[in-house]
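Sequence, structure tokens reproduced for reference:
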Amino acid sequence: MMAWGISENAAPKEKLKSEMGDYLGGLNSTGKIDYETYSNIYDFTMGMLDRMYELGKKES
């Protein structure tokens, strides 16, 4: 699945972050989570994806 607005040439990490952001935005827009929850999860997951990416680079 290609996230809306993300370039096909974007780095793999940025594609994953965009996909996660779209998923969370969908949960917020359908009322499954409120905006405060969306913001907290978004901030946490974007940092976590960055850390996971760095860890993956070190371990490979």
